[in-house]
Design brief:
By secondary structure, this protein is α/β, with parallel strands linked by helices. The chain is built from seven helices and eleven strands.
Amino acid sequence: MHSVVAIKQVPDTSNVRINPETGTLIREGIPTIINPYDIHAVEMAVRLKERFGGTVTVITMGPPKAAEALVECIEQGADRGILVSDRRFGAADTLATSYVLARTVEALQEKTPVDLLLFGKQAIDGDTAQVGPGVAARLGVPLVSYAVAIESFDPVKRKAVIHRAIEQGIEVVEASLPVLLTVEKEIATVKRAPLPNLIKAARYQPEVWNADTPVAFDIAQVGIKGSPTIVGKAFTPSPRSAGAIVSVADNGLRETVADVLATIAQANIVMFQNHNGGRS
């Protein structure tokens, strides 16, 4: 059995800053982490490997620094890490990113068929939740988004039963393999890495692929050339001012509540007028 997990190295959200002139994220000097949903995807793949055998391959597109994230996945029990890195991939939107990852999976499938593809439900820096579905569409495989549990998995019968979160509750879906899942954190609790994995990871060097080898990528579909998305503006929101503090001791409970309700009603009127262009 062969599982492929796509991960992304992202800025630690407690330190996200935006360049006021360019509107882009400032990544230099910012601590990075594995996208939190992705590490749970790795854990799920490792658990299935422990049950059914096989291998877990982790892939990521990013700068050379992203190799650190792949080493962490080896610590968690993955067998192989591939960094797809090239300056020509820079400034990629979700369309271009899904193309690069799909081509990477296709190259892997030529040597070892892929039974399961796992993605975190979304990356915390972009929050689009588009890359996993984009890869599924390009590969022509079933997609189950927002997966929270795998009820059953049968590599022989080529079937899986997956629970996915929807607004009304939990939906149970049966899918044929290979299938691509975008997962919530509930899919698998991340365990502490065992000592043998830590030793293996300390010596491990991820493979690095570029735009030419070992896969020939269509340069027109990667990086900024392959990215039709246009960001109108990105900025850091201004800090909210502190709310008003009312004291019951000053006017008594009844009058204080009446004043608060009147303030809320007036605020709603102003908001309604602003929404309707000043018309009441």
